[in-house]
Structure formats: C-alpha cells, structure tokens
Amino acid sequence: MTVTKAAAISAMKSTLILTATSLLAAAVHGSVVELESRATDGYVQNPSGTASFTFSASCATPACGKNVTGFATSISQLAFGSETGLGAGDACGRCFLINGNKDPYAPDYMGPFFGVVVKATDMCTSTGNEKWCGQTTSQPINSFGMSVHFDLCGDTGAADIFFPPGKSVLTGTYREVLCSEWWTGTDGLSQWDGACLDGESADNWPAVACGNKGTAPA
C-alpha cells in the first residue's frame, strides 16, 4: 500500500520506527498477558504487554509536572501510578516502544503499521475515560481487552509518526525500553514542586523511579 506523508515525517520514520517483526514475541502470548501487581498500592506496572492507542491534541499540563519536546504520551492510571491531584506516578519519564497491529473498528485492515518510542509524561484517568483507561485492580483490562492504554500527545508529533493515514485508534503491544532509544528531546522546567521524570534514567520495571502515590483504581 502506498502511504503519503510529509517529507519530514518520512525522513524521521526511516530512523525512528521499528516494525513489528523486531518486537514483542516473548512478551505477549496470543491475546493473554500475564499481569503482575508488583507495584505498591495495587498499581499494575509491567514492562511489556498489550495496549490500545489513541491521541489527544495536547499534553500541556502533564501529571508528571514537566513537558518534553520529544514524543510523549499519557498512560492509563493503573499503570501510571497515581491519583488525580497527587502528582507524578512511577511511570513518569519511562520510555516505551509501542507498536500497533490492529484497528479494532476495522479488523480487516492489514496495515501499514508503525512503531515509535514515547516517553510517559501524563496520566489518563480511569474515571471519565472508562472505555480506554478504565483498567482497575478488579478488571485489569479495558473494553478492548488491553492491559494498558497510551493516549499520545499530538502536540509532540508522536501521533503523526505512529498512526497510519486516516487512523486514530489502534491496538497492539508495548515494551519498556531505555530512554536512549527515545527520539532526542529535552525536558521542560518543573511546573510544580514534586514534578518528576526520574523513570527516564531508572532501570525498567520492577525498578522504582518516581514512585507511586495514592491507591490504584479498584
């Protein structure tokens, strides 16, 4: 299939995008993902698994407290590791290689699909976003059967790289990676005391970075 994209985006894809053939065979077994509640306060934070993907126009006031210039995303609350108003969770600053492999609204669509490394800077709350980010300790998958949801920050360019033309919803897989694989960007200033992106330099989960706050959605 021929895909038309802006020249700049095409150039970035040639160096940034990893295809599904190089990814997560060991992490995902069919549609069944083993979930472990290794995190404190009931949060479920695994370094790989299944995911759904959408995008928002902006992440101007991220829950981690810092904007970034590189590709960024919000992540569902059960994986983010905090409650509304409590600040950064342990997902803050961590980098994830995400890959779409299906359009849940058009199951016959065969691609193309793309991958990109994004940094988690914001939380998608379970309340009000149940369809995508409604994972809870009692029901750790969303309505599409995915353990984590990524809502890409459109203002960072992540959605332009990740989504095929005409697509705004995908399902697929994710894997935590070193932030050295993230497209070179910069972290902004702290927007409030306690802002944290320490996950960018931490070991992958189950290592702790910013730490979790509050209690996981039940």
TrEMBL record:
CDD domains per record: DPBB_GH45_endoglucanase
InterPro entries linked: RlpA-like_sf (IPR036908)
SUPFAM superfamilies in UniProt: Barwin-like endoglucanases (SSF50685)
Keywords: Signal
Signal peptide: 1-30
Pfam families assigned: EXPB1_D1
Keyword hit for RNA-binding: no
UniProt name for this protein: Endoglucanase V-like protein
Native source organism of the sequence: Lactarius akahatsu
Lineage: Eukaryota, Fungi, Dikarya, Basidiomycota, Agaricomycotina
